[in-house]
Amino acid sequence: DAGITQSPRHKVTETGTPVTLRCHQTENHRYMYWYRQDPGHGLRLIHYSYGVKDTDKGEVSDGYSVSRSKTEDFLLTLESATSSQTSVYFCAISESVSQETQYFGPGTRLLVL
Amino acid sequence: AQKVTQAQTEISVVEKEDVTLDCVYETRDTTYYLFWYKQPPSGELVFLIRRNSFDEQNEISGRYSWNFQKSTSSFNFTITASQVVDSAVYFCALRPMDSSYKLIFGSGTRLLVRP
After folding, report:
1. Closest chain A CA to residue B91
2. Distance CA B48, CA B45 (A)
3. Do A58 and B107 touch (CB under 8 A)?
4. What is the tens place of the pLDDT at every residue in B49-64?
5. What is the pLDDT of residues B80-92, one digit of tens each?
């Protein structure tokens, strides 16, 4: 199993509060991704990173920002949480673009009240 | 449009039955990858298989088999002699070879295997 951890695993917060989710990997993989999972939508890409300090937007990036200051850590921040951001958030990693397979972390369940 | 359709929302079978999960994809790209992931009740996503668009050979891994047909844009997944532990949500995903790096997921098929 790929060494990917996410913290926290569960979080309840209030609307308007900033929230930061952390993804940590021990595989030294270059690429990291944040997805959200919602019923009926499968998983959708929020942001991804192709190296330290190199990030780009995915298809549902509004309201989210990311940072990657070290290879092993990829942070997802909700600047001001809204109820529509209640979801399960998954981090994924891949070794290279050519290798393609993305391995997923255990997920973080976020509830915004 | 790039899209993955899993038309079967939920399937229920009795243990030892064979079951096929359907996946139909759309892409303009001639080069792409297809994946299947399993999400058991515990919630994690488990990688099952990756197939590139140039390899139409079917694959078998134990009780699992995959049928890739470019002519019908399908990548179906069959579980032979299903077991209760196969109960999960199964996702098919497409990785087009554009610059976005994303996986495009279907909405998933929930499989319930009853004893």
Report:
1. A42
2. 9
3. no
4. 999 898 888 888 899 9
5. 999 999 999 999 9
